Amino acid sequence: MIVAISSVIFLFLADQVIKQWALQNLYNKNIVIVKNWFYLELFKNENIAFSLPLPPLIATFLSVIIILALIYYFIKFVKKHFGCQEYALLLIITGALSNLIDRLWHNAVIDYINFTYWPVFNVADIMISVGVALLLILLIKKKEFVQFVQIRLPD
Q1: What single string gives the DSSP state of each residue in the chain?
Q2: From the candidates 15, 102, 125, 155, which is the catalytic residue?
Q3: In angstroms, rounded to a whole number, what is the distance separating the alpha carbons of residues 118 and 41?
Q4: Contact 39, 122 (CB under 8 A)
Q5: Is residue 99 part of a domain?
Q6: CA–CA gap between residue 12 and residue 98 (Å, rounded)
Q7: Which of 69, 99, 122, 127 could form a disulfide with 95 if both were Cys (CB 3.0 to 4.6 A apart)?
Q8: In the Cβ-directed half-sphere of 99, how many Cα atoms lie within 13 Å?
Q9: Considering its fold, how many domains does the chain have in total?
Q10: How large is the greatest C-alpha to C-alpha distance in the chain, in angstroms?
Q11: How many angstroms separate the CA atoms of 103 and 126, rounded?
Q12: Has 111 been annotated as catalytic?
């Protein structure tokens, strides 16, 4: 559990440090990592996931509600034991908190990783995506979930 929490804290701090670096060093410029494919570029995302439009006040409010709900479930589950499901929730919560801090301090999420054919993102977004993917894998592996989503075709 200590390793899991330490890794998440490291990722959170790395994301916040890189965001500050991006704000100071990537304003009106980018750094080419792989030409025509991968750049470090400052992008202030005022929208929600994948740049979907939503008024800033509503995005911030929804972020707070979702984070509080996830924290509630995390505390509920972690009392029993700490496993993959709890680590996935911790990744999602911490990534969401990092992006919420951006919304509160900068009125936008600071993104800096730009693959040409994908929306610009950051380490916090990666944490959220990995956490969600891990939860989905865990759900799919559960027999009840597989039975729930099976479609029965007529004979």
Answers
A1: -HHHHHHHHHHHHHHHHHHHHHHHH-TT-EEEEETTTEEEEEEEE-SSGGG----HHHHHHHHHHHHHHHHHHHHHHHTT--SHHHHHHHHHHHHHHHHHHHHHHHSSEEEEEEETTS--B-HHHHHHHHHHHHHHHHHHHSHHHHHHHPPPPP-
A2: 125
A3: 13
A4: no
A5: yes
A6: 6
A7: 127
A8: 32
A9: 1
A10: 64
A11: 17
A12: yes
Domain housing 77: 2-141
The amino acid present at 49, given as its one-letter code, is A
Q: Based on the residue annotation, tell me whether 155 is a catalytic residue of this protein.
A: no
Task: Summarize pLDDT for 6-17 with one digit per residue, the tens.
Answer: 899 999 999 999
Residue among 86, 57, 56 at smallest CA distance from 72: 86
Instruction: Place 100 in a pLDDT band, splitting at 50, 70 and 90.
Output: very high
**Would 148 be classed as within a structural domain?**
no
In a domain, 37, yes or no: yes
Among 73-82, 94-103, 104-113, the least confident range: 73-82
Q: Give the whole-angstrom CA distance, residue 109 versus residue 101.
A: 8
